[in-house]
Design a protein that fits this description.
The complex is a heterodimer. Chain A is of the alpha/beta class. Chain A is built from nine helices and twelve strands. Chain A is globular. The chains are: A alpha/beta, B mainly alpha.
């Protein structure tokens, strides 16, 4: 179970500074939430963890090894990524689309075989999506599309899963099933990182919260420690109240 | 028939073989089946004229179709093909230059066609990034249109420079697109490049699927999308230039065959690439049969293809769901 540690990382995107000397750590085998307002650097941090972007200064260590030392292919067997938006250009079936998640294990001239199909089937069963297998990915609801992206990342058989705003633009029912899925991943011992701008989601499923504010890490640790009224007001620039209902906190943002 | 049943690749290539074989006996000069084994003038026509021409047509169709299918994936754009990206026109110009100024040696024609095809492709791809109108699909089509027009213009210049008595008629007929002059020599010079490109694309046919993803997503799947795209496009351009240097500019097939293939077997390139090839080969052999039989004089193949391809393209554009 390996986690990340981000050490004094600076990163600028097209000359615009996103992070300046940021450090944080993500525990292995736990569910970590990146919480912050839109544009606070959550997506950029995920891309740095994926190796899609390289830090200008500082370094990232994964499982005791510098992330920069990993090859693209090696990393793709360890880390699965669920991007925030992805519009498939061609009407693949769900089964075909998930099969793309086997790419890390297939050589340049290889095509997937029966054992790859079995892995895809297994993931479909696990997510209770078997009946969607022959549906076209271009004709699915927002929630179904998100599930397909998560399923493709699971087909990679990663031990770390990064999800970029997995619940954005979904209705409550779909949000709830995605959060349930993230909660379920905890039992497999995988490291899960998801970003969200809704503190309630972090409270629901995260073991660990990292609070982003304007490209800085404002706080990190247990949700109950990090999610104080004071911190949340600073992050969202709004008058928020924490309500306790039974044994759970909720954020009330109404006027 | 179920989609699984339609994915039996052998069927499509068997059909291609049958069509190729049947075409031996199609032509204005009537030849009977038993002529194959005799040593007559009929057999000479078959072996020296018809066979190389039919085989060239089959390869022409296969290459244009497989290249079209590849380009459509590589640019996540169902509306591109070798002719739409200006590649065919670039290759035509390169070939015309070689025909007029470089002694017309088949190998030089090939090389010149390939070089200009690569230039045309690079320009239309780069230019599409500067177009400030429409989405990515439309931008690439528009810049391809511009590059095609430019190279057609260049070809026009070549025509006006050609000797009207000797060179011009030959050049003109060739530019309209046709296989009337395709002999064994032409076929054999074209074969290694065309077959080489096809083999590469067939070998990586499943991986071509990954080009339909965003580059960042592909990278997160352990793929180097730039390298993969480069390999796929280079193989397509080389093969397209090789067949174009024999046939002249032939449009539409690179667009039509992949669409038909996707209708038959779905969008997975593991099946679309080989089935496009078979469909393209079948169509081109049939179109060429029409070109050489329908009138007493030969109709250029490019014209036959356009007559059938253009309305079909309109039909594709008018359908609600494009694939």
């Amino acid at each position: 179970m390996s986690g990340f540690s981000v050490n004094e990382v600076s990163f600028a995107y097209n000359g615009v500074k996103v992070f300046d000397d940021v450090s944080l750590s993500i525990p292995g085998g736990k569910v970590t939430a990146f919480l912050g307002a839109n544009g606070s650097g959550k997506t950029t941090m995920q891309k740095l963890l994926l190796g899609l972007l390289k830090p200008d200064a500082g370094n990232i260590v994964f499982g005791g090894r510098l992330l920069a030392e990993f090859g693209v292919r090696e990393l793709s067997k360890i880390i699965g990524w669920v991007p925030q938006v992805e519009e498939p250009s061609f009407p693949y079936t769900v089964q075909e689309y998930l099969m793309l998640g086997r790419a890390p294990y297939l050589g340049f001239l290889d095509a997937p075989d029966i054992s790859d199909s079995e892995i895809v089937e297994h993931v479909l069963e696990r997510l209770e999506m078997t009946e969607l297998a022959e549906r076209k990915v271009t004709r699915m609801s927002g929630g179904e599309k998100r599930m397909v992206l998560i399923a493709r990342a699971l087909v990679q058989e990663p031990s770390v899963l990064l999800l970029d705003e997995p619940t954005s633009h979904l209705d409550l029912g779909n949000k709830s099933s995605i959060l349930g899925l993230i909660d379920g991943l905890r039992d497999t011992g995988d490291t899960v990182v998801f970003s969200t701008h809704d503190p309630n989601e972090a409270i629901c499923v995260a073991d660990h919260v990292i609070l982003f504010c304007g490209g800085e890490v404002l706080a990190c640790g247990f949700p109950c420690d990090v999610l104080s009224e004071e911190n949340l007001r600073q992050v969202y620039g709004a008058d928020l109240r924490l309500l306790r209902v039974e044994d759970r906190f909720f954020v009330d943002f109404g006027p | 028939m179920s989609i699984r049943g339609r994915r039996n690749l052998g069927t499509y290539y068997l059909l291609l073989v049958v069509i190729v074989f049947t075409s031996f006996f199609v032509g204005r000069y009537n030849i009977s089946y038993n002529a194959i084994l005799t040593d007559t003038q009929d057999a000479a026509i078959l072996w020296n004229l018809r066979l190389p021409r039919i085989l060239t047509a089959a390869f022409l169709g296969m290459v244009l179709a497989v290249s079209g299918a590849t380009f459509q994936l590589a640019f996540r754009n169902p509306l591109v093909g070798p002719d739409i990206l200006g590649i065919s026109q670039g290759a035509s110009f390169g070939a015309a230059v070689a025909i007029l100024y470089l002694s017309g040696n088949p190998l030089l024609i090939e090389i010149s066609a390939t070089v200009f095809a690569l230039i045309a492709f690079t320009v239309s791809y780069r230019a599409s990034k500067t177009v400030r109108y429409g989405d990515d699909v439309l931008r690439l089509v528009l810049s391809g249109l511009v590059v095609s027009a430019f190279f057609s213009g260049c070809v026009g210049v070549m025509k006006s420079l050609a000797d009207p008595l000797n060179e011009l008629p030959e050049l003109t007929f060739w530019l309209l697109g046709g296989l009337s002059g395709a002999l064994w020599d032409d076929f054999l010079y074209m074969l290694p490049f065309a077959a080489g490109g096809l083999i590469v694309l067939l070998a990586i046919r499943w991986r071509i699927n990954l080009l339909s993803l965003d580059d960042e997503v592909a990278t997160s799947l352990g793929v180097d999308p730039k390298q993969l795209r480069r390999v796929a496009i280079f193989a397509s351009v080389v093969a397209t230039a090789a067949v174009t240097s024999v046939s002249g500019t032939i449009g539409w097939i690179g667009l039509l065959a992949p669409h038909i293939a996707r209708k038959l077997v779905g969008v997975d390139t593991r099946y679309v690439i080989p089935v496009s090839g078979a469909v393209g080969g079948c169509l081109m052999v049939i179109f060429d049969d029409i070109a050489r039989t329908i009138s007493p004089g030969e109709i250029p193949l490019g014209i036959v293809v356009s007559f059938i391809g253009a309305p079909f393209f309109l039909y594709l554009l008018s359908r609600r769901t494009r694939i």
